[in-house]
Design a protein that fits this description.
Oligomer: single chain
CATH topology of the largest domain: Arc Repressor Mutant, subunit A
Number of domains: 2
Structural class: mainly alpha
Helix content: 40-55%
Strand order of the largest sheet: 1-2
Largest sheet: 2 strands, antiparallel
CATH class of the largest domain: Mainly Alpha
Distance between the termini: 79 Å
Strand content: under 5%
């Protein structure tokens, strides 16, 4: 049964968005929906990923996935610097809508435009698989960027895919950042990323007090003070 868009009293208050954007087969349905929602607002409007998720009754990880997909296809441009929360921890980047860096050429066809239905379905299946693969890589890149010890990337990629079946991207990234910034974490004893993921370590609390880490922090603070004194004397 078809769904027909009828005439409405608000038709003069419209959103401008090219048809090719809405039919871009590189984008998932959720990314197209987010893009349409973003374009319905006036230039200069901004809202955090968390706020968008709350307004749509979904998780921040779902919105972040769509944002990364839109960035990959050129519809969003990431800001140069990552924002910071009042407590000094890192927050979201700023993204700005833009025309995609390449004109979509594999758009979803209208009814009747393709003669060979089987061939088109095969193309769409490949496109869906490629889209899922690209999205998974983008999500892993976010994890890899934050993890403090970058070793055995191939194992980490597989472990990350498995971890996403047990937790959201938001929870994993929050755990990574907490682990990276833990004052008792020592670089030489930092877990391999695959081991950290396989152990569901995003659920862990703060590390126990470590005298070696404390001594190192004091040494780094002393070195910082000496460096500042040296700069002032020059």
């Amino acid at each position: 049964m078809p769904i027909v868009r009828g005439h409405h009293s608000f038709d003069d208050h419209f959103t401008q968005i090219p048809n090719a954007w809405l039919r871009d087969s590189r984008l998932s349905l959720k990314s197209i929906g987010l893009l349409a929602q973003l374009m319905s607002h006036s230039p200069g409007w901004n809202m955090s990923i968390r706020s968008i998720a709350r307004a749509n009754g979904t998780g921040s990880g779902t919105v972040k996935t769509a944002v990364l997909e839109l960035e990959h296809c050129g519809y969003l441009r990431r800001g140069d610097k990552q924002n910071q929360n009042p407590d000094g921890t890192f927050a979201d980047y700023e993204w700005t809508t833009q025309d995609p860096f390449q004109n979509p050429v594999t758009v979803k066809p209208r009814h009747g435009e393709i003669e060979h239905k089987e061939e088109q379905e095969s193309i769409e299946e490949k496109s869906t698989k490629n889209n899922k693969r690209t999205t998974a890589q983008l999500l892993f890149n976010e994890f890899w960027k934050e993890y403090p010890r970058k070793l055995d990337k191939a194992k980490a990629t597989r472990a990350f895919a498995s971890a996403l079946t047990r937790a959201s991207l938001e929870d994993i990234l929050a755990g990574v950042i907490r682990y990276r910034n833990d004052p008792n974490r020592l670089d030489e004893f930092t877990k391999y990323p695959a081991s950290w993921l396989n152990a569901d370590s995003w659920e862990n609390g703060p590390l126990p007090e470590d005298s070696r880490a404390k001594k190192r922090r004091e040494q780094q603070q002393q070195e910082k003070i000496m460096k500042e004194w040296g700069n002032e004397s020059e």
